[in-house]
Amino acid sequence: MRTEEGAVVDLLPKMAPEAPDGYVSFVGRHLTSLRLESAQLAGDAWHAEEIYPEALTDVAARWQWLELRAHWFGRPGAADDYLRQVLTDRAKRWRAEQIYEVEMVVLRADPAEAVDGPGTAAEGASGPGGPGRASAAGDAATTSSGGPVFALVSETARQPSQHRLPAAPFTTADQQRLPPAPFTTGPSTASSAGLARYRRTGPGRSSIGLRQARFLSPKRLPPAPIAEAAIAWWHAYVAQRRRKRVASVVAVILLLAALTNLRATGRM
Prior knowledge:
By secondary structure, the chain is mainly α. Among the domains are: 16-98 and 226-237, no CATH class; 111-152. It has twelve helices and no strands. The chain crosses the membrane at residues 246-264.
């Protein structure tokens, strides 16, 4: 709708692209406590920056309504209450979106029982293990008949010395055929001298970032309240403008559908 002066009258209150002074002072009063509370809710000071800016954006989107409640309805703490509410909601949503590591323990069949097979019972009855070995193998066979195998094997069956091959002999002639170790004293002096010719003797390379790193402070300073207020307000302004565009498109579609319906009804 357009008046005689040419000013556009919006059904919804228009939001300025820049943050007002009242909102900037509000952010300045609550920024320190907001960062601490966000760090407690997130469990880490680094992840707090993913929570409290969204809460400030939510307050900026409702700032005109909150100011109206504070001045006309006698609710001076409406903005503070709404900030705590949206901060709690944002923290819950952030924790729900995180991916946590889950430790799992997978139970498998004993590989020693899979190799021995059901013949372990006969071997235990006649071998040096005696009755104890036969009973252990019998328990393993009973368990494997019903489902996954959880074998109970005695200590004598777990000794790998009977199945392990003897180590190959290492003689003096084999040791002499090995190449000499570099950078050692004795016979390998010639090889060390040869490697030394390919070493870099010039100064090491460094980038501009490494040269300027000593002039930068390692401390991470918190952002200024004015910057935080401006960023949060701009995000709320863009979101409101997007919502208004979507509402306009939906209204036009509904109007066209209504006109089409009326025209079809008039023809009938």
